[in-house]
Amino acid sequence: MPIYEFRCLQCGNIQEIIVTRSDSDALEMKCNSCEGKDLERLLSAASYSMGADRSGPKPSVSTKTCGENTCGTLNIPGPTR
Ligand SMILES: [Zn+2]
């Protein structure tokens, strides 16, 4: 079963919801923190790579000079524990 991440637009709480039906838009969902109903569905992989509003450190880009070009390295922080 697909597991989707939803972010509450009111308090920023992120929760995972297992969607058991294909018409997930019809599900009655609410934030388990503030009970708000304005939830935004996140793509799990994308939300992780973007570091979207997680409480941990966010990815940073470090640049360095490689010859005549500038190289960028995306540093995605791993788990802190
Ligand atoms: Zn909320």
Secondary structure topology:
Elements: E1 3-8, E2 14-18, E3 39-42, H1 44-50, E4 60-66, E5 69-75
Antiparallel strand pairs: 1-2, 1-3, 4-5
Bound molecules: zinc ion.
Descriptive report:
With 81 residues, this protein is mainly β. It has one domain. It is 9% helix and 36% strand. It has one helix spanning 44-50; strands at residues 3-8, 14-18, 39-42, 60-66, 69-75. The strands form 2 sheets. A 3-stranded antiparallel sheet has the order 2-1-3. A two-stranded antiparallel sheet has the order 4-5. The two termini are 28 Å apart. The structure holds zinc ion (ZN). Zinc ion (ZN) binds next to loops. Residues 8, 10-11, 13, 31, 33-34, 36 line the site of zinc ion.
Main attributes?
81 residues, mainly beta, three-stranded antiparallel sheet, elongated, binds zinc ion
Count the strands? 5
Helical/strand content category: mainly beta
> SSE order, as H and E?
EEEHEE
Number of helices: 1
Which stretches are poorly predicted, pLDDT < 50 over at least 5 residues?
Answer: none
What small molecules are bound in this structure? zinc ion
Largest sheet: 3 strands, antiparallel
The total tally of domains equals 1
Strands of the largest sheet, in order across it? 2-1-3
End-to-end distance, in Å? 28 Å
Approximate shape: elongated
Mean of all residue-level pLDDT scores: 75
Oligomer classification: single chain
Percent range for helical residues? Answer: under 10%
Rg: 17 Å
User: In what range is the share of β-strand residues?
Assistant: 35-45%
Short structural description:
The protein has 81 residues and is mostly beta strands. The protein has one helix at 44-50, and strands at 3-8, 14-18, 39-42, 60-66, 69-75.
